[in-house]
Amino acid sequence: IVAEDGSSYISRLFYLWLDPLLRRGQRGELTRPTQVYHLPQKLQTSVVCQHFHRCWGACRRGTGVDDQQDCRSRWDDRSLLKGSGHEEVLELEGDVRLLRVLHKAFGLRYYVLGVLKVMVNMSSFAGPLLLSRLVNFIEDTKAPVTEGVWCVLGLFGTTLFSSVLQNIFVFEVSKVSLSARASLVSAVYGKALRVSSCSLAGFSLGEVVNLMS
Questions:
Q1: How far is it, in rounded angstroms, from Cα 199 to Cα 55?
Q2: 133 and 164, same domain (yes or no)
Q3: Does this UniProt record's set of keywords contain Iron (predicted)?
């Protein structure tokens, strides 16, 4: 079961799609790894690797982001999910800078989350300012009561807003990092399968394991 896919925005915001799984865990019904939810479709290894491979090819050809095979526009391509179920080792040919491929594959999502992080930091600065205003209100005996009420509501609202955004940021950044890690691990593994025995003769088994790690 992929519970996150198809859930509403409210369910994703408050993680309501996790409630059935948490209730099963409370009853002690989660005894095997297969009983938990699967990853969303766009985080599955086959989809992530196909996405990374397309971005690699686009960088090797020097195509722009508005190309017909733009990797971001095909991120949710459902055709990648169809097939025999066997994952194929993708060949990453050409001399391409890895940082450029990662930027093309995951840069947009990461930068959007950066804007979200800026909003979190800005809202966190509002707390001390409102607290100072509240202290001034307490010290001023002639200040209207509505000013104190607005300060308290502002403190509550900014704290709640910052917590919600921070939670979204951490969860979405973990998805981006998981996708990037899966892409790199698959690329290194595919490279290792294609390296000739003559090239590996100069390395011991421990050195090869360390390099792949």
A1: 28
A2: yes
A3: no
Question: For residue 99, which of 107, 91, 89 has the smallest C-alpha distance?
Answer: 107
Output 194 or 178, whichever has higher pLDDT.
178
Domain that holds residue 196: 40-52+102-200
pTM for the whole structure: 0.75
- Count how many domains the chain has: 2
What contacts 194, CB < 8 A, 6 or more positions away? Answer: 89, 91
**46 shares a domain with 11:** no
Contacts of residue 58, Cβ cutoff 8 Å, sequence gap at least 6: 67, 69, 70, 71, 104
CA–CA gap between residue 88 and residue 47 (Å, rounded) = 11
Q: For residues 141 and 184, state if they share a domain.
A: yes
Task: Give the tokens for residue 56.
Answer: 């690699």
> What number of CA atoms fall less than 13 Å from residue 36's CA on the CB side?
8
Q: Is residue 149 part of a domain?
A: yes
Residue 23 and residue 126 in one domain: no
Residues 31-55 have pLDDT tens digits of 888 888 888 988 998 999 999 999 9
Answer whether residue 85 is part of any domain: no
Residues 18 and 48 in one domain: no
Can you tell me the distance from the alpha carbon of 110 to that of 103, in angstroms, rounded to the nearest whole number? 9
What is the pLDDT at residue 91? Answer: 62
